[in-house]
Amino acid sequence: MNRGNDPNPFDDEEPEVNPFSQGAGKSRMPNVVASTLGFGRKHDATVDIPLDNMNDSRKKEKELSTWEADLDRRERDIKRREAAVASAGVPVDDKNWPPFFPLIHHDIANEIPVHAQRLQYFAFASWLGIVLCLVFNVIAVTICWIRGGGVKIFFLAIIYALMGVPLSYVLWYRPLYRAVRTDSALKFGWFFLFYLIHIGFCILAAIAPPIVFQGRSLTGILAAIDVFSDHVLVGIFYLLGFGFFCLESLLSLWVLQKVYAYFRGNK
């Protein structure tokens, strides 16, 4: 064909190829990009997104519970060691009672478990009760001595008070305080032994049999009957002392029962 007569002399040239068209004359660039980036193929690798978040949360909860259990175990071990040290008497307790003239260490509110504080307060009232009984016994016997009862019963009443007050604290109240504080079976046994002796003494004092200086060194019922005929005023004091020892005996028996129930319940 004569190109000179051709209205479009550029028809024989290679047609322009659109690289983004879907024709057969497609450029190789999309294939290269596709092969490089991994798009557009049937068996291309997929990105796996983990779907076990619930299992991970359960695992974390399990680890947290294990950690908490370990902390609780360590705390119990520390408390057990502190109790062992306290039962051995290593720590020195500051004296804080009575407030006006501290002689002993006594802090039920901070050292005794909450569920045993009421029991400890009643035991403390029992110890204060025997202190009151012995002090009042000295007063009554002193009046009897002044009225001609003899000086020996006065000295005996003084001995009862000077020995009874500290011994009752050391032998049964302080062991009970430490037993409830540290849950020591040995301390509980020590308390039961000497508290029974304490109850026996209270009952003996309430009766006051005439076996030691006609029994007038103790303000019991028999001593009150004996002195009432001679001096009414002395008899009244002895009757009051008899009432105090009776109340102390009843309170002590009740405390003994409650402490035993507490000891059995803890064991």
Automatic annotation (TrEMBL):
It comes from the Eukaryota. Residues 1-31 are annotated as: Disordered. Keywords: Cell membrane, Cytoplasmic vesicle, Membrane, Transmembrane, Transmembrane helix, Transport. GO terms for cellular component: plasma membrane; recycling endosome membrane; trans-Golgi network membrane; transport vesicle membrane. One of its GO terms (biological process) is protein transport. InterPro entries: SCAMP (IPR007273). Its main location: membrane. The chain crosses the membrane at residues 121-146, 153-172, 192-212, 232-256. It is a multi-pass membrane protein. It is found in: Cell membrane; Cytoplasmic vesicle, Secretory vesicle membrane. Belongs to the SCAMP family. Probably involved in membrane trafficking. This is Secretory carrier-associated membrane protein. It comes from Erythranthe guttata (Yellow monkey flower). The lineage of its organism: Eukaryota, Viridiplantae, Streptophyta, Embryophyta, Tracheophyta.
